[in-house]
Amino acid sequence: MAIHETLKKSIPDALRAHDEVKLRTIRSLVTAMTNEVVAKKRKPDEYLTDDEAFVVIKRAVNQRKDSIEQFEKASRNDLVKPEKAELVILESYLPAMMSRAEIMTIAKAKMTELGVSTKADVGKFTGTLMKELKGKADGGDVKAVVDSLLS
Question: What pLDDT score was predicted for residue 96?
Fold first, then answer.
């Protein structure tokens, strides 16, 4: 069953459990996915593929992270807590991301394969690495590994 379909069917479970945070998070995610379906010029009752759904979930995760950062800067701890709760729920729907050590192993192999040795090759190297690790590794972690290898 597709993630989009699974999310839609988990709304009644969250309602029965009286889990307001999970219900709010799932509803907003399903709405974002439906908007994505419509943006792709498909009928609203269709489901996204898992790859398309992961893109929507990652976007929601990034929005929550940005919100948390902004709220912390503004010392609005009352708003940070609900965002963090939603972030945990959203991340539970994403596949596990690679650790920096795993990224480092792949990056070193790719570095020798491409013959990258200077900072001038950072863009090409990072782009190639991101294509290979798409959906498996966090972009920030990949950037940190590339920077550490080429510094």
Answer: 80
Looking at the fold, whether 50 and 75 belong to one and the same domain comes out as yes
The tokens for 124 are: 């090409």
Say how far apart CA 23 and CA 18 lie, in whole Å.
8
Stated as kind and residue range, the H or E segment containing 123 is helix 122-132
Domain hosting 143: range is 100-149
CA distances from 68 to 4, 26, 44, 54 (A): 25, 19, 31, 21
Residue 106 maps to which CATH number? 1.10.10.410
8-25: pLDDT as tens digits: 999 999 999 999 999 999
- The pTM of the full predicted model, rounded to 2 decimals, is 0.75
Task: Supply angle C-alpha 91, 96, 100, rounded to 5.
Answer: 115
Instruction: Give the number of domains in the chain.
Output: 2
Q: 108 falls in which pLDDT band (50, 70, 90)?
A: confident
Please, are residues 58 and 32 in contact by the beta-carbon 8 Å criterion?
Answer: no
Q: Is the pLDDT higher at 148 or at 28? A: 28
Q: Are both 81 and 22 inside the same structural domain?
A: yes
Same-domain check for residues 104 and 78:
no
